[in-house]
Amino acid sequence: MKILVFGIGGIGGYFGGRLAKAGNEVTMIARGKQLEAIKNNGLEVESINGDFKVHPHLATDDVAEAEVPDLVILGVKSWQIKNVAKILKPAIGEDTMVLPLQNGANNAEKLLEVLPERNVLAGLCHIVSFVEAPGKIKHASFEPRITFGELDNSRSERIQKLKQVFDEAEITSFIPDNIQLEIWKKFLFITTVSGIGGLTRVSIDKIRQSDYLYNLMRKTAKEVKAIANTKGVPLEEEHLEKAFEIINNQPEGTTASTQRDIMAGKPSEMENFNGFVVKQGEDLDIDTPVNRFIYECLLPMEKEARKSGD
């Protein structure tokens, strides 16, 4: 399969590397020192499942150099999706599938603002990985998994074929009955921990030691659930409790990537997490006081970070 991976960070680098290792014709869109390192030495992946190194079919910063792909995997941040879709639009074909794997509840919707519906899939992933050095991805923990599907949840032929491609690349993947529910389940978890993590600047285990902060997280999650339910997403109390089961089992020192971006003074996905909840609440006439408090407290830092670029 001809696959274009846009963004060779922790997500795009790991999954793109696996797909290249399996013999797919993978084009990696990167930039700067990462691109230079991949061009010169290939992409190295250090993984808890075994280390490997690949040389992609093509490494470039220009999508116009790539052949029309069968599949595009987006490895950028959620706030970059719309601009990336505009860059990709001239390079994709009628049958190209575009799969977003970012955190966030409305990534597919952002793609639909730019791309035809036939090109857009919905998806998410679970993995803890990051760029350790130019040309090197470190997969540190968690069994990597991609969850994906058609926007209408149909079991299309192309979805089944894509599942086979992931299987052959030794990537665990899952086609759920309701992809929107799966997206919101992860959104519930990541929104609950990210903003509070950015404010407190301590790991999840230290946040949950405070009764006050733990209660604040539960209120954050309940507001997310209220938004989801109003939008017709069947997010139930059991899903909220499962999210807190995961929170309670996070090992010492664990932080969310958005929190790490905030602490490093980088542009973050805060607008797409707590900010998204606030804006949906305004549109749907639902009060979201806790998410608003978190969002407004983080907003000045986010504005400063965006002055410095991405």
TrEMBL record:
A UniProt-annotated Pfam family: ApbA_C
Domain Ketopantoate reductase C-terminal: 178-299
Assigned keywords, A-Z: NADP, Oxidoreductase, Pantothenate biosynthesis
Domain Ketopantoate reductase N-terminal: 3-152
Catalytic activities: (R)-pantoate + NADP(+) = 2-dehydropantoate + NADPH + H(+)
Biological or metabolic pathway of the protein: Cofactor biosynthesis; (R)-pantothenate biosynthesis; (R)-pantoate from 3-methyl-2-oxobutanoate: step 2/2
Taxonomy, superkingdom: Bacteria
Signal peptide residues on this chain, from the entry's feature table: none
Keyword Nucleotide-binding: no
EC number: 1.1.1.169
Class of the enzyme per the UniProt entry, highest EC level: oxidoreductase
Entry function: Catalyzes the NADPH-dependent reduction of ketopantoate into pantoic acid.
Similarity comment: family membership: Belongs to the ketopantoate reductase family.
PANTHER family, A to Z: 2-DEHYDROPANTOATE 2-REDUCTASE (PTHR21708:SF26), PROBABLE 2-DEHYDROPANTOATE 2-REDUCTASE (PTHR21708)
Protein's UniProt name: 2-dehydropantoate 2-reductase
